[in-house]
């Protein structure tokens, strides 16, 4: 069975350096006007650099003025605090990008155009998880962020923090000069309110962490608060960095987590860029926030000093992958943050473009609606897994040239939690004798009969039409379902609609021929990136018509309290065996990130976060 090139690299398990060998690196705190780009014509994947002719649209002008003096930075106080005792070691995250020729001194000015596939359904980071990174990562900031290697959580909004020897008593202090975009000071009350909203949000990891830690907060003064947990829980900063707590004024964050705030008036964060405008289906506009005070430390992943050299950032919604690439190569956009592997070779040959491979990646998933027939029955879920050729599924999702691997391990490879337990069998991830479709059909027939259904009943498959790996993966999923004899309705919908549908579609009957949210659904495509049991959203009761399985809850608690690494690994084996027996979701494989950007930008990709602060036009 072919495995796509991963350049000799398999995905790195974050937990090797987070949950085991992890020690949080703490302390610290710690122009020119351009016309918006028109939608470019689609590019063929095989086009070479020379195919861009003289009739191509002109490139955005580059700002030439020298940068002003760097803004004053916040006063710092260093507090060193290890939050996890080392019990093993792990590899670093993968960043493969060409080293730029000396970009010269930073320059301020200009608008950077960034091509994005999907229109965010909301700017509310708690109400919809899709606004955590990307656009949200420029507008909002939290208490902690991942560093450049994604190997440590570092303080972001904090000047200092501490954890006592019992692992249950935290103290946090907001850094000096830290302000929201409405120019009000960020206070401890704002931070506590934002944290409470995070805990009550739809974020599956937040709910899991909250249930385990049971945190209680006490405000000490305007900048300091403490937090007590019900048991030793030293990795709180890691999960805050991973799952995107974002700070907002208390007047906004006091809203119920399931009540989305008003985008126009309440998108107020504390990041280096402030929200200006959201034109659904077209673009999100952000401008430099002059009241932002960078940290003392150098830029470091999602943390460190963020200096806003660009006057503004525009995320332009371009749903088609080939059109994004065409826009990049003609200079109408400056960066494409997620590139299909089909375009990798052509872009690497383009002298005006750099291509970066970044990992650990986020494994693509097909997630079942476990509250709606027939996939409430595990036999139906097992049948789809049995009918799937994983190599074909990943090729459909990421292309022949993509940096991906066949990998069924549910906690990223090459780390202490990677295991092969439960992966091999005719209805498992690895199928030694290939797909045995007759057995898969028989299993589906049993499920349908048990649920009072027939093969004439229609399934409803959701795969976003504006995110290439979901579109391609969805096409294969439809084919696999049909190979079982199922009738499949796959409505042509974008990612924002998929999000709405999956939120509203739990515990509802399927509506034949449905083209818009209202009824149930059978499953949908997404991606996530679990590095340990607490970050596996597929284990959650609240994530996508959740997995109500008391056995996994017991295994997670036992894993948290197991006295030895060997006992923890044995419990990880049990978790993976259970996942491949119950099949709450199907992990398609492992995929690294592929990004491309124009060489007129001075920009260094990071595994820690996608941020355009501290980048500039040469």
How many helices? The count is 15
Sheet with the most strands: spatial strand order: 1-13-21-12-2-11-10-9
Share of helix, binned = 10-25%
Q: Beta-strand level of the residues, as a percent range?
A: 15-25%
Instruction: Say how many strands there are.
Output: 23
Query: Mean pLDDT across all residues, rounded?
Result: 82
**What shape does the CA trace take?**
globular
Radius of gyration of CA atoms, rounded to a whole number = 24 Å
Give the distance, in angstroms, between the N- and C-terminal Cα atoms.
Answer: 46 Å
Biggest sheet record: 8 strands, mixed
Structural class estimated from helices and strands? alpha+beta
Q: Low-confidence spans: pLDDT under 50, at least 5 residues?
A: 1-40, 44-92
Detailed description of the structure:
By secondary structure, this protein is α+β, with helices and mostly antiparallel strands. Helix content is 24%, strand content 16%. It contains 15 helices and 23 strands. An eight-stranded mixed beta sheet has the order 1-13-21-12-2-11-10-9. Strand 5 (158-163) and strand 6 form a beta hairpin. Mean pLDDT is 82; it is low at 1-40 and 44-92.
Q: SSE layout and pairings?
A:
Blueprint: E1 95-96, E2 111-116, H1 135-139, E3 144-146, E4 153-155, E5 158-163, E6 169-174, H2 188-199, H3 204-213, E7 216-219, E8 224-228, H4 236-243, H5 250-253, H6 263-266, E9 273-279, E10 283-288, E11 312-317, H7 321-329, E12 335-336, H8 344-348, E13 353-358, E14 364-368, H9 378-387, H10 390-398, E15 404-405, H11 437-450, E16 458-462, H12 468-483, E17 487-489, H13 495-504, E18 523-527, H14 550-561, H15 565-582, E19 585-587, E20 590-591, E21 593-598, E22 601-602, E23 616-617
């Amino acid at each position: 069975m072919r495995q796509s090139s991963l350049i000799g690299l398999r995905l790195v398990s974050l937990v090797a350096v987070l949950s085991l060998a992890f020690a949080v690196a703490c302390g610290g705190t710690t122009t020119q006007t351009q016309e918006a780009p028109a939608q470019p014509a689609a590019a063929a994947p095989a086009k070479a650099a020379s195919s861009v002719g003289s009739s191509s649209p002109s490139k955005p002008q580059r700002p030439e003025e020298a940068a002003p003096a760097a803004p004053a930075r916040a006063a710092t106080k260093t507090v060193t605090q290890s939050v996890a005792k080392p019990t093993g070691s792990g590899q670093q995250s993968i960043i493969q990008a060409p080293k730029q020729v000396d970009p010269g001194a930073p320059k301020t000015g200009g608008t950077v155009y960034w091509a994005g596939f999907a229109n965010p359904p909301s700017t509310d980071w708690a109400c919809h998880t899709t606004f955590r990174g990307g656009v949200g990562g420029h507008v909002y900031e939290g208490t902690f962020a991942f560093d450049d290697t994604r190997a440590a959580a570092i303080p972001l909004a904090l000047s200092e923090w501490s954890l006592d020897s019992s692992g249950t008593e935290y103290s946090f202090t907001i850094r000096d000069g830290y302000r929201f975009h409405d120019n009000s000071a960020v206070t401890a009350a704002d931070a506590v309110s934002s944290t409470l909203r995070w805990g009550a949000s739809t974020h599956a990891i937040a709910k899991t962490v909250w249930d385990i830690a049971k945190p209680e907060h006490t405000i000490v003064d305007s900048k300091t608060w403490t937090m007590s947990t019900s048991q030793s829980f030293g990795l709180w900063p890691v999960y805050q960095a991973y799952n995107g707590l974002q700070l907002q004024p208390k007047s906004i964050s006091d809203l119920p987590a399931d009540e989305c705030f008003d985008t126009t008036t309440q998108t107020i964060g504390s990041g280096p860029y402030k929200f200006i405008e959201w034109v659904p289906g077209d673009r999100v506009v952000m401008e430099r926030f002059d009241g932002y005070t960078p940290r003392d430390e150098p830029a470091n992943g999602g943390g460190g000093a963020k200096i806003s050299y660009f006057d503004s950032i525009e995320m332009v919604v371009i749903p088609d992958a080939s059109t994004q690439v065409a826009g990049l190569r003609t200079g109408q956009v400056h960066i494409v943050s997620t590139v299909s592997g089909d375009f990798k070779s052509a872009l690497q040959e383009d002298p005006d473009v750099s291509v970066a491979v970044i990992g650990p990646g986020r494994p693509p998933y097909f997630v079942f609606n476990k509250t709606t027939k027939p996939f409430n029955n595990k036999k139906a879920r097992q049948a789809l897994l049995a009918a799937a050729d994983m190599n074909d599924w990943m090729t459909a999702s990421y292309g022949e040239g993509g940096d991906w691997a066949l990998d069924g391990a549910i906690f990223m490879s090459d780390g202490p939690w990677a295991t092969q337990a439960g992966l091999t069998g005719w209805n498992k991830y690895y199928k030694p004798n290939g797909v045995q479709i007759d057995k898969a059909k028989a299993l589906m027939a049993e499920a349908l009969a048990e649920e009072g259904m027939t093969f004439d009943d229609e399934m409803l498959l959701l795969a976003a039409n504006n995110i290439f790996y979901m579109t391609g993966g969805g096409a294969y999923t439809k084919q696999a379902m049909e190979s079982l004899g199922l009738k499949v309705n796959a409505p042509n919908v974008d990612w924002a609609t998929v999000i709405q549908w999956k939120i509203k579609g739990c515990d509802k009957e399927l509506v034949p021929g449905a083209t818009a949210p209202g009824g149930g659904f059978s499953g949908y495509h997404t991606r996530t990136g679990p590095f340990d049991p607490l970050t596996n959203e597929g284990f959650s009761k609240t994530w996508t018509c959740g997995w109500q399985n008391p056995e996994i809850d017991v295994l997670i608690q036992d894993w948290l309290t197991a006295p030895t690494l060997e006992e923890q690994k044995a419990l990880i084996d049990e978790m993976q065996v259970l996942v491949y027996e119950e099949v709450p979701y199907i992990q398609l494989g492992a995929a690294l990130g592929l990004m491309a950007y124009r060489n007129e930008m001075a920009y260094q990709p990071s595994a820690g976060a996608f941020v355009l602060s501290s980048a500039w036009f040469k």
